[in-house]
Design brief:
It contains seven helices and ten strands. The radius of gyration is 20 Å and the shape is globular. Bound molecules: zinc ion. Zinc ion (ZN) binds next to loops.
Length: 264
């Protein structure tokens, strides 16, 4: 499920493949992933234009066109694929841009929980979605982080994943960040002192930046990450104990019960 590091890697991929090429044609294979635009509208708005640049906020990727902005959200299982041979169209490609260099970019989305939309203004979109600041934005410093969490009740993991508080962290990276500081995901947010909050903040930046550096590929993650051991009975990289699966807000969470003490 694409989270901030995955979308940052998609951005890098998009920038390296799809920028500054004229879009010759667009094929919508499944209009279910279109949020605010019809298939024919998307085709006519994109054809003849070119992507001029990209930006990312949280789990959203924005691609600037001559007149519009294409917003990509990848849902649970999305990705991008750039390819030349039209016979190699990836399975579950929901929308495809054909470029004037005979290459194609597919928005691949098996479970169709991703979305494409066209907007005019990124700032207005972020406000309408009430998205919090991007957690890797340079302006999102410890003071801003502490302020966004102050007075919040509820479990720290749930708060870190609340895109209206701060944008970018999902289920998998929330577990990694909390494991790195040995804090149990169910710990009430308002019981965390300044020192612990600072450690979580530092771990958040470090974990996400490390993941981006390593192409968001768990096979390349450092040995002290718990993500590669994300299964019931996985081996804790710190103590060698068994990783345990818990349900938190309906999602599977993975913790080391030896390293991360459950709140009473
Ligand atoms: Zn452990």
């Amino acid at each position: 499920m694409p989270e901030l590091p995955d979308v940052a890697v998609f951005k890098r991929y998009f920038d390296a493949t799809a920028l500054h090429k004229e879009i010759d044609d667009v094929h919508v294979r499944d209009a279910q992933i279109l949020a605010n635009v019809s298939g024919p509208q998307l085709v006519s708005r994109l054809t003849g234009s070119a992507f001029k640049g990209t930006s990312r906020h949280g789990k959203y990727l924005f691609a600037m066109l001559d007149e519009d902005v294409l917003v990509m959200h990848f849902g649970m299982t999305g990705r991008l694929q750039y390819y030349k041979d039209p016979d190699r169209e990836p399975r579950y490609a929901r929308c495809i841009c054909d470029f004037d260099n005979d290459y194609h970019l597919a928005f691949v989305n098996p479970r169709k929980l991703g979305q494409l939309r066209l907007i005019q203004d990124v700032g207005a979109f972020l406000r309408a979605k009430q998205l919090g600041p991007d957690v890797l934005d340079d302006d999102f410093d410890f003071a801003a982080f502490r302020k966004r969490l102050s007075g919040r009740r509820g479990m720290i993991k749930t708060r870190l994943m609340d895109q209206k508080i701060m944008a970018g962290i999902g289920n998998v990276y929330a577990d990694e960040i909390l494991f790195q500081v040995r804090i149990h995901p169910k710990t009430p947010t308002n019981e965390l002192d300044e020192k612990v909050l600072h450690a979580i903040f530092d771990a958040m930046k470090k974990v996400l930046e490390t993941a981006i550096d390593r192409d968001a590929d768990p096979h390349q993650f450092p040995d002290h990450f718990i993500i590669p051991q994300r299964r019931e009975g996985g081996e804790c990289p710190a103590c060698g104990g068994n990783v345990q699966r818990l349900k938190i807000s309906g999602r599977s969470s993975y913790v080391c019960p030896q390293c991360q003490e459950a709140p009473v």
